[in-house]
Amino acid sequence: MMKIDQLSLARQLDLVFKELDHELSGLDSGVVFVQIRNNVIGKFGIRHNPITGRDGQMDLDEKGLNETQRTSFRAMALETLKFKRNWTHGEISYDFTVRQGMILVDATMESNYNMASLMIRYPRINTYKDSDMESTS
Q1: pTM of the prediction?
Q2: Using an 8 Å Cβ cutoff, are 96 and 31 in contact?
Q3: N or C: which end of the chain has fewer CB within 10 A?
């Protein structure tokens, strides 16, 4: 059996979109997010509010992304991975909406770093040489 960390990030993202395909078919806007740790997608999902209120009634909007729009969305999401540089932990959010029959996607990449892991790579020297303060390392 193959482990998830043996799959490329692009293949993992492709699997995410296949898993979310049915849900996306019922939405015409929202945010798809993927949380990444060590270049492995953990948590993923969609933030949306598909219930629309009009004239005192709450109705579920029946329209959503068609198959062509979902395929285009997946292709654009995979294309954004080319802009990911040198980070292994973070989140990518894809804000999507349909306007005039076309899907529009804005991607936001958030890299996360951990100071504790940096301390392993950098030598512990006194960073306060010009003052009376001493390093706590």
Answers
A1: 0.78
A2: yes
A3: N
- For the chain, the C-alpha Rg in angstroms (whole number) is 21
Contacting residues for 128 by C-beta, under 8 A, at least 6 apart: 134, 135
- Characterize the bridge pairing of strands 51-54 and 40-47: unpaired
Name the pairing type of β-strands 29-37 and 90-99: antiparallel
Give pLDDT, residue 48: 85
> Which residue bears the tokens 């899907």?
103
Q: Which of 68, 58, 66, 85 is nearest to 27 (CA)?
A: 66
Helix (H, G, I), strand (E, B) or coil at 91: strand
Calpha distance 115→113 (Å, rounded): 7
Q: Kindly indicate the confidence band of residue 96, based on its pLDDT and cuts at 50, 70 and 90.
A: very high
Give the span between the Cα atoms of 91 and 66, in whole angstroms: 26
